[in-house]
Each structure stands twice: as structure tokens, then as C-alpha cells.
Amino acid sequence: MSAVMITRKVRKWEKLPGKNTFCCDGRVMMARQKGIFYLTLFLIIGTCSLFFAFECPYLAVHLSPAIPVFAVVLFLFVMAMLLRTSFSDPGVLPRALPEEANFIEMEIEAANGNVPSGQRPPPRIRNVQINNQIVKLKYCYTCKIFRPPRASHCSICDNCVDRFDHHCPWVGNCVGKRNYRYFYLFTLTLSLLTIYIFAFDIVHVVMRSVDQGFLNTLKETPGTVLEVLVCFFTLWSMVGLTGFHTYLISLNQTTNEDIKGSWSGKNRGQNPYSHKNIIKNCCEVLCGPTYPSVLDRRGLMQEDSPTLVTSEGPCSFDNPVAQTTKTTAPLIPNEHTPEDVKPSIAASAEKSPSPKEDHSPAPKLPPLASPETDVETSIVKNH
Amino acid sequence: QHTASLVTKVFIQRDYSEGTVCRFQTKFPTELNNKIERALLEQTVKTLNLYYMEAEKVGGQSYLEGCLACATAYIVFFCMETRYEKVLKKISGYIQEQNEKIYAPRGLLLTDPIERGMRVLEISIFEDQGSSGSSPSSGMSSCSTAR
């Protein structure tokens, strides 16, 4: 019968609400459904591999070795942009902590005054004047905040994202303030890469056919057919998408605003965020400051109190974590959590005979972990 | 040495009148009427706003940083601290200094906005334990003073 006090280092990403998945201990942040992202990777890497295998040897010899070199550079750039877009925080706004949420609720109630019973309270909207244009800030019931201008709630990731553009399943992430330029550069360079491979496929087939005939060429380099097919279909969509986003950037508009028609129709030309100058708009979006993530995924949780682990039977503890002011996520129950646990300071509130009588005033306890599930543990002294 | 307990928190909201740039309202919250002089809080908020403006300035240095980073496929960001991050460090130091010099002696505590998603400037109001009459305001039941 032995009790071991261990501290489980919990990083903040583990307790973040929302439907994101995290990898590499919080360094990587993506949406939950990643299937289409893997397809994107497969198509890009697959097509480029075929190009390097079939076309490049011939072209390097018969035309110029610069061709495969440039293809490699372009390919690496595309991959870098794709991974940056997919793995980074798009600009997620953390949810309001309980005090902040209450404070806002009180303000709303004070502003609404007395609503006669039976009547619905007015919608939660704040009006802000930006550049002589009235912008409505909506209240997000999930995140319990008034969304900043241009922010929107992504239902797939269940987060409010700043300067929300759209959720892109091809990159497996939302596109927002922090990763929009990487997304744009990805579409741009992928278009270039697709055009490049398509063009040199044609050149290669033509050159080889002159020597060997068309059918023989296809027999020798079967990959060409596949590449041409993939590139042909990709080309139209990518070039179209790049063109569309170039248009949006020149107007300093997001896809979300464009779809909703926020600044079109009779509002056209009144986008308050636009500098009315294409160069300035482009510079702001592409060369603006790189905003840091406000999520702090890798920070350690404030509640570094010890976890009790016993070596036999179900564990009990007399003081599970009550909601602290630092986190909004609920306790994660596991099979060791007693059903009728109540927060209490007194050590006398023990539920069953437990082997921890010998340590002093009961500390606050985070979710109980069993030794096999703990990733980072360290043995600490009792205090 | 006496301990202080948390009474309530006041949140200074963002000022969006200049667009999406990071700015906080200089409107003085009524809850702080007897706690601190208006001018001091206004000065703190104005200085913070200047810092954020410096961080988000779209100008020569940000273009240079952007172009250089783009040319290296943004790999350089793994080694280099961006200008925004440098300014955030300055802000964090400034807030700490303000807390030590001005706010803590008055029983207040500023929380760096970055810890609240840059949405609000949170000011916690503390009262000395043992002083009578200070009870949490209604609706703030989630801030408990003692556990």
C-alpha cells in the first residue's frame, strides 16, 4: 500500500476548448478532419515525384539542368507554405473566462433595461463606427465575447477566428489573420508549380516524340499521362483561386465578407478597412506585421498541484479541483473519479479509507491520472 | 504581512473606432472611482496603445521583415524574433513596472492583454483581508475569494 505524489505537467493546449487537434506537444494546430489535407499532400508530392523521376532526367540532359533545380525550389516553397498554413494558429480568439463573460452579461443587461416578460430581449449587437461606416459587432454565444470586427466563428473548428477568411479542408485548417498570407502564397506558388510541370510535360512529350514517336514516349514515361491529368484539373482551380484571392487582397476583403456581401451592392466602395489604394491594400495584407498567437498553447497550466496515485484499487481524494479563475475547461473525468466528489478544503472529507493520511493539508487536485496514462510526471515532495 | 483577497475584476474593452488595430478604450470605469486617479490609468492605457501601434505599424521595417521572411520561405521565423514579439516583451515589462509602482500599492493588478486574447485589459481589484464591508458585487459569484 503506497502512495506516490506526482505532478503532471499539463500544457495549455490540452485544455483548450474547440475542435482542434494538436500535435508535437502543442506546436502544431489543425482542424479535426485531416483527410483532404493528406490528399493534398499526396497529390503534390506524388505528382512532383513523377516529374522528377520521368521528365527531369531527360530535360536536364536535353535542355538545361536548371529546369529540375527550379522545380525543386518551387516544390520546397510550395510545401513550406502549405505546412505553414496548415500547422499554424489562424488567429483563434480564446474564449472569455467566467469573470469576463459575467462582466459582459451585466453590461448587456444594463443596456437592455427591463424587458417585459414574454418578449424576447433585443439581439446582442454592438455598433462601432470605423472610418465613417457603422460596423455591427455580434455576440458569440459559444465564446461569450463580442466578436471583434472581421472575426467570425468557425463551426467546424468551433472557434472564433480573427479576420476569418474561410475554413479550407484542403489545408485542414481555418484561414485567418495569422496564416492568410501563407495561404495566398501557397495558392500562388502551387499555380506556378502546376503550370511549370504541365508546360514541361508537354515540352518533354513533344521533344521525345520527335525522336521516338508519340506512343513510344508514353510507354517509356507513363507517369507523364498521370501528371498531365492532375495538372490540367489542378491548374484551372488553382489559377482561379489565386485570381480570386488577388482580387480580395486588392480590395482588403475577406472571403467571408465577400460571400456575405458585406461591402457589395449599395455598400460597394465603402469597405472601412480598405485604404482605397490597391498597392496599400496588398502591402498591408502581405507585408504587414506577423501577429503572434494569443493562444499560448505550450504554456504550462497554472494548476501545478499534485496528483495522487495509489497502487491499489480505486483512488479517492478529498479535494478535487474546483473551477479556478485561470481555466474554463471542466475537469476531465476518468475511471478513477468518484461520482459524488465535492470540493472541500477540510481533509476530513475523505470518502473512503485512503492511504494518504500521512500527508498534510489536502491540496487542490487536478484530474486524476493513472501512471500508465501520464506522459510527463515528476515526483515531488509533499508540502 | 497581510494577504489581500480578490473582490472583483474590471475589463477595459477594445476601442475599434480606428479599425482592427489594437487599441484600448480610455474611458474610465466607474468601479475604479475611489481606487486610482483617472490621469494615471489614462496614461497607462495611452502608453499601451502607443506600444501596440508601434508593433502593428505597416511601414519600412515591416516590409523588410516581410520580404526577407518570404524569400526564405518563412524559415527565418524559426530563428528570429519578429518585431511584434519584441514589442510584446516591452509591453510585458511595462505592465510589470506599472503594477509594482502604481497599481499594487492601490490594491489593483493589471493583467497583460495578451493573456486575455488581446480582447480586454483586465484590472483585478483586491481588498485587504480583515477589512469589513467589501463583498463581491452581485453577479461576480464566480470569483471566489477563499477556497
Q: What can you tell me about this protein's structure?
A:
The complex is a heterodimer of chains A (383) and B (147). Chain A is α+β, with helices and mostly antiparallel strands and 383 residues long. Among the domains of chain A are: 13-92 and 167-239; 98-147, no CATH class. Helices cover 39% and strands 13% of the residues of chain A. Chain A has eight helices and 13 strands. Chain A has helices spanning 35-62, 66-87, 98-112, 180-212, 214-220, 223-251, 255-260, 278-287; strands spanning 3-8, 20-23, 28-31, 92-93, 125-130, 133-140, 145-146, 152-154, 159-161, 166-168, 173-175, 307-310, 377-379. A three-stranded antiparallel β-sheet of chain A has the order 12-1-13, with no helix packed on it. In chain A, strands 4-9-8 form a three-stranded antiparallel β-sheet, with no helix packed on it. In chain A, α1 packs antiparallel against α2, α1 crosses α6 and α4 runs antiparallel to α6. Chain A starts with a strand and ends with a strand. Chain B has 147 residues and is an alpha+beta fold. Chain B has one domain (20-128). Chain B is 35% helix and 16% strand. Chain B is built from three helices and three strands, in the order βαααββ. In chain B, strands 1-3-2 form a three-stranded antiparallel β-sheet. In chain B, β2 (108-111) and β3 form a beta hairpin. The radius of gyration of chain B is 19 Å and the shape is elongated. Chain B starts with a strand and ends in a 19-residue tail after the last strand. At the A-B interface, α2, α3, β5 and α8 of A face β1, α2 and α3 of B.
